[in-house]
Amino acid sequence: MSASVRLRTPGGTTRLGAGLAVALGAALLTAACSSSGSSSSSAPATPAGGSAAAAAAGSGLVITTKSGSAGAFLTDGSGRAVYLWMKDGKDSSACSGACAGAWPPVTTTGAVTASGGVNNAVLSTITRSGGAKQVVYDGHPLYYFSGDSGPGQVNGQGSDGFGAQWWLVDPAGTSITAAVTVSSGAATPAPSASASSTSGGGRY
Q1: What is the Cα–Cα distance from 83 to 162, expressed in whole angstroms?
Q2: Cβ-defined contacts of 114-119 (< 8 Å, 24+)
Q3: Measured at the alpha carbon of residue 126, what is the angle toward residues 180 and 89, in degrees to the nearest 5?
Q4: Handedness of CA 91, 111, 173, 121 (dihedral sign)
Q5: 133 and 125 Cβ atoms separated by less than 8 Å
Q6: Using CB atoms within 10 A of its CB, is residue 18 exposed (0-12), middle (13-18) or buried (19+)?
Q7: Which residues contact 49 (CB under 8 A, 6 or more apart)?
Q8: Is the Cα dihedral 86, 87, 89, 95 positive or negative?
């Protein structure tokens, strides 16, 4: 006697042969597997922010030199002059508030590197009270002068603003106390005798 399967339909019960029942079951199983396979083969979403993490890294700063009438002096990578302040202590800045407005600290959000005869071994940073990283050369915190509108200007040379002298810095880490003429032809006023005598060579 051959096996059969009863299939209930709206019109009643229909008898199916065993072979037809097996074929119907296999077809249903194949469809289910196919549906499951298509959903699992879809590629996972790429995590958001993958490229943003790389972009979050801070950009670095280069300290290099420019030639003037008194020899080479330190600048940033764009050629803008940087200065030391005789009121500062070693690896310590005393310039804040209005002083930092007129003499903006040279800061970086990344690594600081040396070029053009600058000694990388004495190049470092300190953390200011607000958290900014100020560049230091041979113990001297470095500053820009707001009166320099761009590269090649040294209008801050010899200033005694905020109670102490501001000088350009040579690659040895010593203050330059002479009047400086740069390649653009601009010259700074000659420092007063009293200002020069109090510099002490700019060494700590």
Answers
A1: 14
A2: 114/62, 114/63, 114/64, 115/62, 115/63, 115/64, 115/65, 115/77, 116/64, 116/65, 116/72, 117/64, 117/65, 117/72, 117/171, 118/63, 118/64, 118/65, 118/74, 118/171, 119/171, 119/172, 119/173
A3: 60
A4: positive
A5: yes
A6: exposed
A7: none
A8: negative
Q: Is 63 exposed, middle or buried (0-12, 13-18, 19+ CB in 10 A)?
A: buried
Please state, rounded to an integer, the average pLDDT across all residues of the chain: 76
What sign results for the dihedral spanned by CA atoms 162, 163, 168, 172?
negative
* DSSP type of residue 106: -
191: tokens are 């420092």
Residue 116 has a CB neighbour count (10 Å cut-off) of 15
pTM of the model: 0.65
Cβ atoms within 10 Å of 75's Cβ, excluding its own: 25
Give residue-wise pLDDT tens across range 143-170: 999 999 999 999 999 999 999 999 999 9
Decide if 98 contacts 125 (C-beta within 8 A).
no
Residues 106, 142: contact at Cβ < 8 Å? yes
